[in-house]
Amino acid sequence: MATIRAVEVQRLRAETNAGVMECKRALEETQGDFAKAVALISSRGLAKAAKKSDREAKEGLVASYIHGGRIGALVELSSETDFVARNPQFQDLASEIAKQVAAMAPANVEDLLKQSYIRDSKKTIGELVTAVAATTGENIHIRRFVRFQLGD
Fold it and tell me: Pick from 51, 67, 84: which residue ends a domain?
């Protein structure tokens, strides 16, 4: 069994936002293989997020984005607690979703979740939401959005 150093645990924690003990266990289970440990933590987080998807999300925030004074978007992103809603990662997600809505003009929330992310076409918006839900340990979902464009 490989010896797990604290610096490796810190590096994994910085990359995945997982707890210290979770990172240590993942590195132990993968015999110190960093890439496999990242994948293991990710899969565990996604499983946790799926279990929590039925829980009610009454908190959250409304994010806005205005592009050139001609296109604007408002997005309501929900979470279970206001603690998560104040998390910078959650706030960044809300901002990125507002930019996505302004740029891609989705028809509805389901369409938005299926769209390729404008900054990384290998990911969908749904995958971004699930990744943040896995990191925070709470149910997160896009409740609604609206897009405005001059002349429409």
Answer: 51
Burial class (CB in 10 A: 0-12, 13-18, 19+), 34: middle
Separation of alpha carbons 45 and 42, rounded Å: 5
| Model confidence pLDDT, tens digit, residues 116-152 | 999 999 999 999 998 888 888 888 999 999 999 998 8
Per DSSP, the residues of 95-118 read: HHHHHHHHHH--SSHHHHHHSEET
Rg (CA), the chain: 18
CATH number of the domain residue 16 falls in: 1.10.8.10
Name the residue range of residue 21's domain.
6-51
- Taking only the tens place, the pLDDT of each residue in 66-106 is 999 999 999 999 999 989 999 999 999 999 999 999 999 99
DSSP 8-state symbol, 70: T
DSSP letter assigned to residue 55: S
Shared domain for 139 and 64, answered yes or no, is: yes
